[in-house]
Amino acid sequence: MAKVRLTKNELKKQKDALKRFQRYLPTLMLKKQQLQGEIRITELRVKELLVAINNLDETFKTWIAVFGEKGIFTDDILKITSLKTGRGNVAGVPIPIFEGAEFEIAHYDLAHTPMWLDRAVECMKDVLLLKLEAEIVEEQRRRLDKELRTTTQRVNLFEKIKIPETRGNIKKIQVYLGDQQTASVVRGKIAKSATAKAGG
User: Is residue 56 a contact partner of residue 123, using CB atoms and an 8 Å limit?
Assistant: First the structure.
């Protein structure tokens, strides 16, 4: 802690700093609450997405055996060609927003492939979209978590260090200046009494 000067100018400086800290602290606390709320929303969304992915996986299991048919379902039948994201802002934190994805479906001969292939490709698309959205929402949560840590550190700095320290400095300066004023009055009275005795 830097040594505080015991002057009227320093007293004014400390009082101004205290006002600033007290004005800024509620804003930080509000931001902290907002971030905590948004993090909960992202966590719930990820859970919803994982449940939806799991449900689709369960649907796949009922007819997964047909995927084994030779040469029909290959890894390159469906490819992601682009991921679409936008930009959002939560409590001053820039976050990516999932807006979808584009896919490329390999050409296959409708006459020589089973009817279920179209449905399988659509299901795969749905699963991929859910997984991509879950990744983006996880990224949102990571960014919000990072900002929450920083904001919490600032709240603690103001609440536990800066405000008490500044109040202590103000009190110390006020006591010192009060003592100086009292000493000045006492010295004045002594001087006046000495002057009166010398003249009388």
Answer: yes
- 67, 101, 165 from 108: Cα distances, Å: 15, 21, 73
52 alpha carbon, distance to own chain's centre: 27
- 81-118 tens-digit pLDDT: 999 999 999 989 999 999 999 999 887 766 666 677 77
Q: Which residues lie below 8 Å from residue 99, measured CB to CB, with a gap of 6+?
A: 84, 85, 86
Closest CA to 98 of 128, 71, 62, 74: 128
- The C-alpha atoms of residue 125 and residue 100 are separated, in whole angstroms, by 11
For residue 63, pLDDT beyond 70: no
Q: Which amino acid is at 155?
A: V
Alpha carbon distance 156, 151 (integer Å) = 9
